[in-house]
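Budget justification aside, the reviewers requested a transparent look at the raw inputs and outputs of the sequence design task funded under Objective 1. We therefore reproduce one unedited record. The lines immediately below are the structure tokens for a 144-residue chain.
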């Protein structure tokens, strides 16, 4: 059984895996990565994706969706016969759709790391989550 949380944390990584994290002003040193997985949200149900007309549903207009024409490509991006390069201007406008992707790490970590060998802490199991759309980390579960 564990305690579910959603508290912001600071994470230091080594080789793309969490090596340390700070939670409630305390440093935790990761001893071992136990599991690593990704979860995706329901991107297809977002207002912006529905407004783009994905699927057979016809969605009502969305106020925060901004559509902008793709500007003409500059001369340096044109091929010899005047056709634009395929990637120039393709990302014009705010076409980002948050897919809700989250990256999870279940780690075994020890509180402290301050070099106090007199009172070694016992390790705990923690679920850390990186929210790709926000670019931030959260501690989502502490296992008992």
């Amino acid at each position: 059984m564990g305690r579910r949380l959603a508290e912001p944390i600071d994470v230091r990584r080594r080789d793309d895996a969490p090596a340390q994290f700070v939670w409630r002003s305390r440093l935790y040193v990761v001893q071992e990565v136990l599991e690593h997985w990704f979860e995706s949200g329901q991107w297809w149900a977002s207002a912006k994706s529905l407004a783009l007309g994905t699927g057979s549903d016809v969605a009502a207009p969305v106020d925060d969706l901004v559509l902008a024409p793709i500007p003409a490509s500059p001369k340096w991006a044109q091929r010899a016969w005047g056709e634009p390069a395929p990637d120039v201007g393709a990302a014009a406008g705010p076409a980002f759709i948050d897919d809700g992707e989250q990256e999870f790490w279940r780690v075994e970590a020890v509180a402290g790391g301050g070099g106090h060998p007199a009172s070694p802490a016992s390790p705990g199991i923690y679920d850390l989550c990186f929210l790709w759309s926000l670019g931030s980390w959260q501690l989502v579960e502490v296992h008992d």
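Residues 47-51 form the longest helix (5 residues). The chain has a mean pLDDT of 77. Computational costs for records of this kind are itemized in the attached budget.
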